[in-house]
Amino acid sequence: MDTKVSSITGDEEKDNKIFAEASEILRKGGLVAFPTETVYGLGADALNEGASAKIYAAKGRPSDNPLIVHIAELSDMEKLAVDIPELAYKLAGEFWPGPMTMVLKKAECVPDSITGGLSTVAIRMPVHETARRLIRESGVYIAAPSANTSGKPSPTKAEHVIGDLSGKIDMIICDDTVDVGVESTIVDLSEDCATILRPGYITLKDIERVAGEARLDPGIMEGVAAGVVPKAPGMKYKHYAPNARITIVEGDNDKVVEYINKKLSRDGLSGDEALSSRIAVLATEENSKRYNTDNVYVLSAKADEVKAAKNLYRILRDFDRDKVDIVYSESFPQTGVGLSVMNRLIKAAGHTIVRV
Ligand code: TXA
Ligand code: MG
Asked: How far does residue 122's CA lie from ligand 1's centre (Å)?
């Protein structure tokens, strides 16, 4: 399949044409990748089962992993969900449009094929202008997972989408103004207490401020390894992973640096691995000059969680681009947005954490 790749430039006439074309593709049941404020999404008409089936095929996504439906108006939520609690309106009032997804009881019109057979549906109103305009102009609710091959880090740049999906979908809209860098916060409102199923830019504190009470799904950080099954089906997969093997090193800062430097001297490696492997470090700005290698990838300053979120997926993909085999990563604070960073990083590392 030929994939049309078009960039939003601000030239009104050209942009109008791109939106008209993309809208037409969506209405006809095709696939269009587009930017949102969190990551790029791979969109299809949510109410067209044939169209959403194509999403699963293009991504190689397991069919039990449900999709988020993207809307442009609050009234759309009422068409897709039933028994909507008052809290949903409060949260929407505070965080929509924006990087928050709510899980609500699904309406009849939502096909089981996009909810993985669940009786709930995940709904999000993005704030990114391109996403909003595409939903409005196409006139469809857009089911959209992140626009990556299943298992790869979510795309924050058009080149990531092109690398993963070129030849498999109808169109890619390029607009590298993706800002947040990690996927939306998912809040489950289908049960009594508001529960965060996936951490993101909107934090537990933010939700608590509006809801009064909220909790984190215990499956979020423990993960499958500890036998706790996360409630968002997608959170159980080894996710966000580059080809490189990542080890997170936790503990006293000086000891972490010392441990990683010892590893950089190929301590503990044998045979081929000792000779030929490319070892890199994922570091805080503060420590970046302390490692005995040129292969240091700086995530952000230690306290700058927002920047860490913005950079993480790009760096995970850079490891692949630079053919890195082994990564030693510092651990980052799990406060606020930092929780979403560590949640993704721990998954990318397949839960390999060393305490020093
Ligand atoms: O920021 C985002 O949310 C991006 C952009 C494109 O909007 N989308 C995104 O979609 O991250 P995806 O498919 O990569 O992740 C959706 C997550 C999965 O973990 C899935 O299991 C969960 O949402 N999910 C979807 N519907 C659900 C439901 N009814 N109940 C629980 N979890 C659900
Ligand atoms: Mg995804």
From this structure: 7
